[in-house]
Amino acid sequence: MGCTMLRNDAQSYGVVTILFHWIIALIFIGQMLLGYLMVRTSDFALQFNLFQWHKSFGFMILALSGLRVLWRMANPRPRDPDGMGYLERLAAHVAHGLLYLALFLVPLTGWAIASSSPLQIPTYAFNLIVIPPLPLAISDQAEAFWTVSHAYLAYLSAFVATAHMLAALHHHFWKKDAVLLRMLGWYSTAHDRQHAEQLRSAPKDVQS
Ligand code: HEM
Ligand code: HEM
């Protein structure tokens, strides 16, 4: 058992997809909390620092998501489990599409805030890489527009991500299928799964 494949196959996700999913999900959730808190603090020195962290991790999501999509295009997607109806499949696929879209649109609109702000504060990802501004109009109005867009898109995608997480839990605890397990790297192949099921149903004395 376990997950030793790099690539996806028709039943399971490979390690690369799994790492992309959980690393990006973790940073994304962190960014939501950080973004929410940083705009609400009245300690301006702290706020400035939090903004720099927020921008750096945002660029990390953008870069990782670019690589992730390339990897996704070069890999098969595991089949949906049997017993999922048409609408369920559709909902899952639409949600995944929206989440992929969010992984680009949310950081890009964030980048647009920093680029259009009359303050023109230079952006260094992790104090290391100079990020040039996007070629956008610089004005208070432009900054306000991108700020609202960024905030709306961020909270909308958090809503979709929450539904997505609840759906994963629903699959695991109610439907008891392998959807969550295969994104965790358990049951790397259908064979492993069958084997585990056989072990579970075998009489105690036959188990080794
Ligand atoms: C997936 C990545 C990102 C997520 C999930 C995210 C999320 C958020 C959230 C939730 C807020 C608070 C919105 C509010 O309540 O008003 C926020 C604010 C902000 N974000 Fe992001 N963000 C991301 C990436 C970025 C990037 C890459 C940049 C810039 C390069 C950026 C720049 C900003 C700025 C400047 C604000 C403050 C806006 C204001 O002045 O109110 N964000 N972000
Ligand atoms: C704790 C929270 C999360 C859980 C439990 C979770 C669980 C899962 C599971 C089980 C799958 C596999 C679905 C399948 O096999 O069809 C999946 C796929 C996916 N997840 Fe999440 N996820 C979480 C958070 C996130 C977040 C925050 C994002 C993005 C912002 C995200 C984006 C995606 C995408 C785009 C896919 C589709 C992967 C593909 O191309 O097949 N997930 N997630």
Describe the protein in words.
It is a single chain. The protein has 6 helices and 2 strands; from the N terminus they run αααββααα. With 208 residues, it is mainly α. It has one domain (15-81, 89-200). Strands 1-2 form a two-stranded antiparallel ribbon. A hairpin with a 3-residue loop joins β1 (123-125) and β2 (129-131). α1 (15-38) runs antiparallel to α2 (44-73), α2 packs across α3 and α3 (86-116) runs antiparallel to α4. The protein binds protoporphyrin IX containing FE (2 copies).
Short note summarizing the structure:
With 208 residues, this protein is mainly α. The chain has helices at 15-38, 44-73, 86-116, 140-175, 179-184, 190-201; strands at 123-125, 129-131.
Structural class: mainly alpha
Order of helices and strands: HHHEEHHH
Gross geometry: elongated
The biggest beta sheet is recorded as: 2 strands, antiparallel
The share of residues in extended strands comes to under 5%
First-residue to last-residue Cα separation: 15 Å
The largest beta-sheet arranges its strands as 1-2
Instruction: Count every helix, treating DSSP H or I runs of 4 or more residues as helices.
Output: 6
Small-molecule binders = protoporphyrin IX containing FE
Chart the SSEs and their pairings.
Layout: H1 15-38, H2 44-73, H3 86-116, E1 123-125, E2 129-131, H4 140-175, H5 179-184, H6 190-201
Antiparallel strand pairs: 1-2
One protoporphyrin IX containing FE is lined by residues 28, 31-32, 35-36, 39, 51, 54-55, 58-59, 61, 106-107, 110-111, 113-114, 123, 147, 150-151, 154.
